[in-house]
Queue: 4 jobs
Job 1
Amino acid sequence: MEHRQLGGNKFMVCHSRNQPHDSISQKLYLQKDMHYTFSAWFQVSEGEVPVTAYIKTSSSYKFVGAVVAESKCWSMLKGGFTADESTPAELYFESNHTSIEIWVDSVSLQPFTQEEWNSHQDQSIEKVNCLP
């Protein structure tokens, strides 16, 4: 893993990968029944390659989201999940194409309570209903 800069943009690069899950990861603590939204930008060194985000806990793996990342073009992955328990966890990315580099930028994981989620939904519905 290394930091790179291209045209003023700094990002992380996962290279010399031997296993699909060889990538950057972030340790975190999940809170039971919280909803989490996730986003990140991905690019690969060559071709078009599926990249998947997962949350790993001591008892399970949770799918967060997936995107087909391309070379020479940043692709946004958006996803989310609900935590089943309060527990330490690890966010990581994987791709079965271990010969390519995975470039990662602007990773965001945001927690929401059910009430906050409902409020956001209600506000979005009101905006749509107010359109001419």
Job 2
Amino acid sequence: MSVPQRKVVLAASAVIFEGGSVLLVERAHPPAAGYWSFPGGHICAGEAPQAAAIREVREETGLEPEILGCFCEREIESLGPDGSRSTTYQLSVFAGVIRAGAVPVAASDAAQARFVPFAELEQYRLTSGAEDVIRSAWTYLYDEVLQAGLRCGER
């Protein structure tokens, strides 16, 4: 008996901050329809992961983010209709910022898009692990990237 091959998809997403808020989109299509998460999706052939993350933010929200780095790689399993693992997403997750006052407009596969204050995250039906990713992105962005930049600028 042969074991069915799982599909592997390279993908990128971006955790974008504006002040004390994070950019979230409500997914319009399965497998995460109705859940809130970060803009993201597949990486096109020949496309760099960071370029894919920027493209996905643009397509899903109309915004142009400033990406400051890739802070983690994740592997996400998607289940098929029979409950078996059908697709593995190898995800590059980027952190970035957006100019103050930018207003996202949902498009592409996003039903809604908005900046959500950290204190309101528990009011949203987030994809599995999203809140931990937000915390990790915040730590990466502000503790490692921006503070390192400030230290370099002080010399």
Job 3
Amino acid sequence: MDHVRDAGRVIAALGTRNAELRRQLDEVRAGAGPEAVAAAEQRALGLEAEVEWLRAELLTSAERGIELQTRLEASEGQNTELQTRLKASMAEARSARADSLELIHRLEESRAEAWRASEALEAEIR
């Protein structure tokens, strides 16, 4: 947006410069020959065209800036949503890992208990 502001200042300066040239043109018309008047008028017309072009570019840049700002805000919202989903997924993964570790621990206890029961049964059979 700083570029847009800077461009606005340049356009304003060109407009002021154009007004000054018009004032000088009026002075020249009052005391100069037709060739000087024609040259000054031609230069003023060229500067007016440049000012109008710059104004159109400034408007286009401002509109593009607004569009980009809107897209940025939408992206930030999507980023926030994705971060929330990621945190939830990570919490689920931690919970699943804890559950898995608990199941492994129970399995090991069951194996040990089955082993003890098997040994006891074998001892009874002998």
Job 4
Amino acid sequence: MTHVRKASLAIKDHEHKRAKTLAGEKDNQHRLCPLLRLPPELRNAIYEHSLVQASPIVVTKDLKQPHLLSTCRQVRTEAKKIWYNLNKFNVPAWDCDASLLKHFHHFIVTAGGYQGVEVSVRVHGNKSWSNLVGWCQAVFDDDALAFTFTKEGHMPANEAVIQAAHKIAMTARTWAVCEEGLADLHFLVSKLDADWLL
């Protein structure tokens, strides 16, 4: 019995020391960073003013989080959601290649997987069926990479093909079933537009 009690006291003592250390770190952050002495509402206004851009942020492989997010843990925690959720991100997909979209998705997930990040995909360049199949493989593995056309009105033909391919990838139960559906779609699309034969 005495061993259990000593162990219990040692755990409580460790928890108490850890709580004091965390409280000390927070007090130390407040002393070192004048921003943290401001009320939260004012800090949020400062974060919004310095982090939110009027036009969409064009995603590149070199995209990094703003330097403000690397000042200290508390500022990072508070400001990160504002940067991700109040900005719009534009991801170009050249020749139906989704590698940049996959890169940005990984970027978001490793940053905390924020819900509500507004991402638009702009399809540029040539039609490439092999790249589209690769994109569909990524959609099959994780439907967060799917492309959906949200504008009202007429949908451009290329985007209609991409969206149809993604719907096949999202609804197929196996990759073999997905490949069959994509092959059928490819047959139909290439009859209408020979550029999709590549």
